């Protein structure tokens, strides 16, 4: 066992947030930073080609975690795509740049998380961006993360945005990351480079700085335990090529392993629900019952339609979209429904032959909650994941409203040029049959959050500075800290979290 390395900061997890933190902390040349990542570098060509993203799913770049049998999805088990590579899930996702709604962050602040209102976090979104669009006070142009509006939309995707406008949505090229998000439609903003390559967190934040002398990026390094002595996190055990290594921190350890592996690592380190840890023979360091709880995720439901004419294969699996609130006061709350559109991807409908257009309904404010627990004290075992998808009746009602909206979109003048009939679920289905079809076909769009939630209540895990309750020198920074999910794809918010926590840590170091 090696134990001769010491760093100022140890960042565990090279996903979207971890890449940001490692970059910003190592910008101070007097600080030595270690980034530990269980996967490898993003050096495969298909990673960077947006059209090949589907080929990456289920490979060795993907944890591909299974859920338990989901009781409200007729006991189906789902697989969750999670990046096991520098860049994390930003390497495997659809590249959509969606911040969420300003009210999402105001709600975090309302819950007692001072400093997380939209006005507080907006500067960090702006700092992260290299936006290629019309000048706007809501966008940045000097950041590492490229943001471009879909430059190669298919004609059906443009028709989709025009159809939304016919129904009263703002569009057809609305900046949903600007003044308003609810009741808007447009082509998606994407994390892509000028030559239409993926701009992952690795591309934006890590690859350009790999030559920094004070930054060590250790790949294929699975962290197994955070070492805590006298109430302070002082080091990390990790496995590399089957060998255990121990590294130490002079200052802080920042856990950025995501909504499944951050709570798993905390529990393996003795931080979590005492009874659960005791049942696996783990020494209890801090009894925090909220570790692994509050798991929630965006749920999807697919509605493909036959096309009257051949449609081109899209470069991006989500070309355009809209955001709606399915209850009456449409502008009084964040949207709870997102609809992604593409012109039909070969192989997605193996039982249907012919051209089609595709509508992916996403419940972006789910009320159902689940949990992540550990299977054993062995770090190599996958976590036990139970989402309880569609447990809450309102989650089903959002989809019923969404089905009605998709049907209205297909009756517009703009989409009448293409739409030739509903393939699934079928326009003749009763409401009872639709409810059953939702339980049979709803799946995840792989946006898990909330399992190390920020706050001060008895189920919170970190405070508003993302410090783990009861442990000095230890923070969590990733999607797991979200007390409530954002209204849209969470990658942009994870990058923002990385920018904000880096600022907190640097300011603490400067003024201590």
Structure description:
The structure is a single chain. The protein is α/β, with parallel strands linked by helices and 512 residues long. The chain has 2 domains: 1-148 and 195-296 and 372-380 and 448-512, FAD/NAD(P)-binding domain, CATH 3.50.50.60; 151-187 and 299-363 and 390-441, Cholesterol Oxidase, domain 2 (2-Layer Sandwich). Helices cover 24% and strands 23% of the residues. The chain has 12 helices and 23 strands. It has helices spanning 16-26, 45-48, 102-110, 118-128, 155-166, 201-206, 258-268, 274-279, 393-410, 413-416, 431-441, 491-511, and strands spanning 2-12, 33-36, 65-66, 79-80, 129-132, 145-149, 184-187, 189-190, 215-218, 221-229, 232-240, 243-255, 271-272, 286-287, 299-307, 320-324, 337-342, 356-363, 371-373, 384-386, 419-422, 443-444, 474-476. The strands form 6 sheets. Strands 1, 2, 9, 10, 11, 12 and 23 form a 7-stranded mixed sheet that branches. Strands 7, 15, 16, 17, 18, 21 and 22 form a 7-stranded antiparallel sheet that branches. A 3-stranded mixed sheet has the order 5-6-8. A hairpin with a 2-residue loop joins strand 11 (232-240) and strand 12. Helix 1 packs parallel to helix 12 (491-511) and helix 4 crosses helix 12. The mean pLDDT is 96.
């Amino acid at each position: 066992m090696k134990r001769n390395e010491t760093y100022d900061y140890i960042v565990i997890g090279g996903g979207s947030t971890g890449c940001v933190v490692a970059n910003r902390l190592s910008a101070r040349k007097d600080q030595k930073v270690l980034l530990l990542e269980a996967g490898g570098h993003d050096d495969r060509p298909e990673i960077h080609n947006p059209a090949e993203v589907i080929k990456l799913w289920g490979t060795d770049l993907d944890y591909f975690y299974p859920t338990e049998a989901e009781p409200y999805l007729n006991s189906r088990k789902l697989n969750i795509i999670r990046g096991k590579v520098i860049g994390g899930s930003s390497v495997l996702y659809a590249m959509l740049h969606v911040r969420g709604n300003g009210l999402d962050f105001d709600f975090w602040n309302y819950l007692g998380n001072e400093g997380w209102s939209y006005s507080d976090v907006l500067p960090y979104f702006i700092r992260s961006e290299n936006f290629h669009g019309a000048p706007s006070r809501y966008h940045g142009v000097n950041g590492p993360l490229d943001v471009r509006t879909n430059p190669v939309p298919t004609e059906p995707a443009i028709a989709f945005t025009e159809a939304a406008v016919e129904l009263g949505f703002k569009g057809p090229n609305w900046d949903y990351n600007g003044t308003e998000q609810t009741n808007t439609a447009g082509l998606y903003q994407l994390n892509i480079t000028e030559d239409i390559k993926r701009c992952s967190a690795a591309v934006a934040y890590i690859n350009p700085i790999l030559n920094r002398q004070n930054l060590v990026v250790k790949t294929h390094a699975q962290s197994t335990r955070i070492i805590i002595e006298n109430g302070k996190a002082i080091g990390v055990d990790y496995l590399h090529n089957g060998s255990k290594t121990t590294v130490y921190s002079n200052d802080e350890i920042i856990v950025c392993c995501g909504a499944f592996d951050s709570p798993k690592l905390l529990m393996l380190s003795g931080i979590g629900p005492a009874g659960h840890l005791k049942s696996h023979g783990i020494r209890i360091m801090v009894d925090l019952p909220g570790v692994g709880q509050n798991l929630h995720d965006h749920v999807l439901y697919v509605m493909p339609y036959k096309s009257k004419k051949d449609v081109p294969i899209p470069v991006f699996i989500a070309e355009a979209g809209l955001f709606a609130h399915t209850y009456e006061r449409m502008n009084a709350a964040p949207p709870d429904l997102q609809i992604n559109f593409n012109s039909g991807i070969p192989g997605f409908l193996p039982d249907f032959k012919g051209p089609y257009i595709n509508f992916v309904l996403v419940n972006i404010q789910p009320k159902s909650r689940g949990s992540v627990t550990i299977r054993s004290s062995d770090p190599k075992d996958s976590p036990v994941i139970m989402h309880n998808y569609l447990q809450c009746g309102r989650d089903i009602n959002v989809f019923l409203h969404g089905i009605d909206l998709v049907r209205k979109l297909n009756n517009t003048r703009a989409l009448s040029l293409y739409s030739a009939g509903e393939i699934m679920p079928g326009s003749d289905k009763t409401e009872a049959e639709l409810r059953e079809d939702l339980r049979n076909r709803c799946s995840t769009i792989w946006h898990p959050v909330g399992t190390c939630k920020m706050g001060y209540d008895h189920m919170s895990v970190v405070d508003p500075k993302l410090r783990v309750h009861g442990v000095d020198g230890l923070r969590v920074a990733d999607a797991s800290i979200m007390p409530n999910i954002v209204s849209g794809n969470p990658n942009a918010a994870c990058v923002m979290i990385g920018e904000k926590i880096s600022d907190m840590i640097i300011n603490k170091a400067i003024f201590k």
